[in-house]
Write a structure and sequence with these properties.
Blueprint: E1 3-7, E2 10-13, E3 18-25, E4 33-39, E5 46-51, E6 58-60, E7 68-73, E8 78-83, E9 92-99, E10 109-112, E11 116-121
Parallel strand pairs: 2-11
Antiparallel strand pairs: 1-3, 3-8, 4-5, 4-9, 5-6, 7-8, 9-10, 9-11
């Protein structure tokens, strides 16, 4: 009974910012760890960021550390990814995921959104 819907993607210039949102529905959504992953054309899906169910723990990929911030508001059943100082290599489809353990490993997540496109141009 968990559904995830991403929004906020779009085109942006190098150095710009975007905030992605993931709206979740389901009775136990607030108990799930959440993560963001991305996949660029011709590349494998890669970890971006994750956050524990209560927001107490986070982890980031080295490629986005210091530029991206993951957060959540359980009262609103929403997870966010604030992306600053965007680079062309950040171009990808970004996916929101939910699971029972916060982790950079995609196999630990049970629920996935449809994805939202982020395109960074120079």
């Amino acid at each position: 009974q968990v559904q995830l819907v991403e929004s906020g993607g779009g085109p942006v210039q190098t150095g710009g910012s975007l905030r992605l949102s993931c709206a979740a529905s389901g009775r136990t959504v607030s108990t799930y760890a959440m993560g963001w992953f991305r996949q660029a054309p011709g590349k494998d899906r890669e970890f971006v960021a994750t956050i524990s169910w209560n927001g107490g723990s986070t982890k980031y990929a080295d490629s986005v550390k210091g530029r991206f911030t993951i957060s959540r508001n359980n009262a609103k059943s929403t997870v966010y990814l604030q992306m600053n100082s965007l680079k062309p290599e950040d171009t990808a489809v970004y996916y929101c995921a939910g699971g029972r353990s916060w982790s950079p490993d995609p196999w630990r997540y049970d629920y996935w959104g449809q994805g939202t496109q982020v395109t960074v141009s120079s």
